[in-house]
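Quick sanity check, DNA/RNA-binding protein Alba-like domain-containing protein:
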Amino acid sequence: MTMAVETLVASSENVLAPKKNRIQVSNTKKPLFFYVNLAKRYIQQHNEVELSALGMAITTVVTIAEILKNNGVATEKKVLTSSVGMKDENRGRMIQKAKIEIVLEKSDKGESPPEAADTSTEPITADTDAEKATTDTAKEPAAAAADDEKK
């Protein structure tokens, strides 16, 4: 009987103790880049960060994750979506709210900007395919006019 009590106590401690690398994002409390910089700090300290949000704040979490990924700071590890039953304060009834959790892990690249797509060292020439196509189509009516003159 004491084992069941210990298990219950241990599991309730896990629920009450917040994760050290979790950020619960709100649309109204802090600006976007507060969360971006906080997530960068958590990634440096813990090698991963978990971003979570409810309802309208979901777009903010997705934006934060995309900023971190595009800057080469983090890579996406896991995305979880669900709905959570909450009591509506105004009406006093249960409502469902969308929830998202995005886990990002430290990128191998660090915080270097993404590499350019074209890293070739060949000189760029003025004759691109688009220009050749434009030049060829521009010559076609003139060639047609020259053919007409010959007839």
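Posting the structure with no commentary besides this: Residues 24 and 52 are 5 Å apart (CA to CA).
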